[in-house]
Amino acid sequence: MSNVEETLSIIKPDAVDRNLDNEIKEMFKNKGFSILKEKKIQIEKSEAEKFYKVHETKPFYNDLCAYLSSGPIVVMVLEKENAVLANRELMGATNPNDAEEGTIRKKYGISIDKNSVHGSDSVENAKIEIDFFFND
Ligand code: CMP
Asked: What is the percentage of the chain residues whose pLDDT exceeds 70?
């Protein structure tokens, strides 16, 4: 049975700053993702705080929100069979040092903070995150 899902992807400031957005989009397309929506934006720190609210008790929360709002990002709605899991596999481990060969974070990630991409971690959060950025 088919299980086509949508998931949210963010190309983070470190990658946009290095002009890697097109190369990263190609990696998604090569894996069979359709990019249904995309926009390049810069968000306020207060918006990053809302987006990453699940992490608000974590010691890295403040730096994480400052970082996501520090420069332009590309936000995308990706569609594919089992897109949430497929995106997480293509991104690789949160820490680029632990990421497998062939993953985006292995190829482009600089550190656990500057790890080039974010992706929704569940179908439920994908809906919330897509609505956060594309609510019109
Ligand atoms: P992301 O998938 O965007 O979700 C939350 C982000 O927090 C994560 O990627 C990392 O970039 C960042 N982060 C910083 N420190 C940590 C940590 N110790 N554990 C998990 N995520 C961290």
From this structure: 99
